[in-house]
Amino acid sequence: MKYSQASKGWFIEIMIIERYNSLRIHIPEGVYFSLLLAGPFSRFLAWLLDRVIIFATLMLLYSISGLSQFYGSGLFNAGMILVSFISIIGYNILFEWLWRGQTLGKRLLGIRVMDVLGLQLQFNQIVIRNLLRAVDSLPTLYLVGGTAMVLSERCQRLGDLAANTVVIYVPESMEPEIEQILSGKYNSLALYPHLEARLRHRTSSDEASILVKALLRRDLFNPEARIDLFDMLARHFEDKVSFPEESTEFLSDEQYLRNVADTLFRKTGSNNHNKKNNSTTQTAQVS
Amino acid sequence: MILDLQRFLAQERPYWNELDEMLTRMRERAGTGIRLDEIQRLYYLYRRTASDLARVRSQVAETELQDYLETLVARAYGEIHEVRSTRRIRPIHFIRVVFPNTVRQYNRALLLSCIVFGTGALCGAFLTVLDDTNKSYIVPSGFAHVLQNPSDRVAEEEAARLDHLAGNRTLFSTELMTHNIRISIMAVSVGFFWGMGTFLLLFYNGTILGLVFADFIQAGESFFVFGWLLPHGIIEIPAILIAGQAGLLLGGAVLGYGNRNSLSLRLRHIAPVLIILITGVALMLIWAGIIEAFLSQYHEPFIPYSLKILFGIAEGIIFLIYLVFSGRKADKKPNEVQPGIEGMVY
Prior knowledge:
The complex is a heterodimer of chains A (287) and B (346). Chain A is mainly α.
């Protein structure tokens, strides 16, 4: 079970990274890290959520504070104008400041505002990016900002460009299950790198994808069909490369195929970052 | 090179966990100071994790582990490589020193802003003098009252009872403030288009102002129009001009003529200036909004125009003195440049 989740994980990861840009930051310690940039759609959703939250909160305050009896008086209307003005302008600034780049909507969507260089967000950056909403939201529904986002290299609207910020997906800070890495995913085929290389070489991408689909759906098959299918697949892959007896002798067909899949899809040292960061990566270098 | 992944993990994991905990702790009590030994420990853990990341990346095909370490390093990097000071907010200091100094420091942009606005005003006045019907092409339909015959307007305003805004003055002043602040935010923002947006906005607002003044003066109501507009306009117009200054500075940073820094560095430099200017502008507009609602809308016979004009002139002189002289002594040290960022190579 654990294994299947992990393999799904790769798939999702590879798809997202290829579709969206990521921002790579090189740090003086000689390594780099990559951050996934948030796309226009998730940012739009976050904005929409924020608007709904502001509106709902104002309505709620209005109804429970018993202010409605003053409705229509000059002071009341003035207060309403002031409160809505301040909350629309101040909401983003306040939240992004207190929560380091996240509003409620952004938090719900798992995105965050960040400095382009990966530094801490400064207050004046927050103010600038939010003041420039005035022009980004022109002529309506953030058309200017949306266009800028599509055209810019790091998916920035004008406010982001002016403030040197980007919006990224908050990286999952979960520690991987180290035990799983150590035991569950042990791959006996990995002892023979040359055979693994040959297997990769001889397997077409169609074959590989058939294999992964079969593995991902394995719980959906009838037990008999499952055995048959995996038997067939195992024979097919065995024909390509025969691994030494001791690496396969105690493996079921299914376990053998999982190992094959791992061999095929595992990112190896050299091509690992190529896969992850393709040509779509933006590089910000700090030295 | 990692020969034995198991041993490597067993050995390094406690450090990662410690770094993780430390970062979480620092984040929770952001703003409070941290001790020297804590900083040293943090730095050590950060470097150790960074080097682990390098090793893991070069050797092992464990993407999850890589991602985890990347996240840790990214978080620690944000904490450690932050050299820009977070300044405290000091309102009095801001009004007395920071704002006037900043306005003076970028006086060329202010001058340009004045010229554009002034040219617009002259054009507006000229067009009105040339042909009275011109104004209907320029003024948006929302401001229909401007199209009215000036003398009728004066008669109407003067006939209004003392309290024709009764109970609504607060509302009126709030509307004015928020509207004007919105316009000045717009004036700054549209500067992003190489300053052209600000140019147009300044010119257009100048045109309308020139038009209104010329219209009233032509109708022989100059006394009224000065009494009407001067008390708040004397603050409001400079506020728009300073907003224009900020917009032009932003446009200048985007253009970057004569500046070898990269776009992002230029914008980084101008950002704090923009914040200072726009904050000052907002304060000025709040003042102008109050004056406009509570003083400007009263006309003769309740308040003599001469008094209102006098008030406006006095206000203008005080403001000018403030802008030119306030905080000059404190100006000795050059504008604080964010340290560290300067030395970075992009």
